[in-house]
Specification:
Layout lengths: L2 H11 L2 E3 H6 L5 H8 L3 E5 L2 E4 L6 H8 L4 E2 L1 H7 L11 E5 L5 H5 L3 E5 L1 H4 L3 E5 L5 E5 L1 H10 L6 H13 L5 H10 L3 H11 L1
Parallel strand pairs: 5-6
Antiparallel strand pairs: 1-3, 2-3, 4-5, 7-8
Helix pairs in contact: 5-8, 8-9, 8-10
């Protein structure tokens, strides 16, 4: 199998490939330029290439470009069907100290968190294009919203909780555990007391 065929094979299971992925499979990077010239791939960002035959998944591209970013807040609500609103901007959370200037310039809602909260509740969810991206789980997302209650519209929090309590796979003990870790257990009980 020649190197261009190998790149095509990689694209069968990945909508996005990186220069590092290509190098790790033993294909010289020069073949990325050949694939670009042949219209097989297009450059999405430095070292990141997208399959031209597939619909571009912006969420997946952003995740590859900013691999420390975790989808959060309204974007995580959307990924888990905890809202009726499609986000106009993506929410991503980064570790405290991460340089977020370029992200803000691209219109991404950026939050930074200390490691204790940044690493809590990280999971994956499927995008509308069928790709898996990193995001916070339902319980962490709700705790984040409650924690930022004053910055959010109160309806976002109450609507998310209404959707959450109706879901079969909710984990109220995990929600309670996260609320204690994040110091929002009293506020969470207030919200849940109205809904349950």
């Amino acid at each position: 199998m020649d190197n261009i065929s190998k790149i095509k094979k990689m694209l069968e299971s990945n909508d996005v490939i990186t220069a590092k992925m290509v190098t790790n499979t033993g294909i010289p990077r020069a073949y990325l330029k050949t694939a670009l010239n042949q219209g097989i791939i297009e450059k999405a960002a430095r070292g990141i290439y997208a399959d031209t035959s597939k619909w571009q998944d912006d969420m997946l591209l952003l995740q590859h470009r900013y691999f420390k970013g975790i989808y959060s807040f309204n974007t995580a609500l959307y990924l888990f069907d905890l809202t009726d609103v499609t986000p106009s901007k993506y929410d991503m959370t980064f570790p405290q100290g991460y340089n977020t200037k370029s992200l803000r310039e691209q219109g991404i809602n950026v939050t930074t968190m200390v490691p204790k909260y940044y690493n809590l509740g990280v999971t994956t969810a499927e995008t509308i294009c069928g790709n898996m991206v990193k995001c916070y789980d339902k319980e962490k997302t709700i705790c984040d919203l409650v924690r930022r209650e004053k910055q959010n519209d109160i309806r976002i929090v109450t609507d998310a909780l209404k959707f959450y309590v109706r879901q079969k796979d909710k984990d109220l003990s995990k929600l309670s555990q996260y609320a204690q870790i994040m110091g929002v257990d009293k506020d969470m009980r207030k919200y849940l007391g109205v809904l349950l």
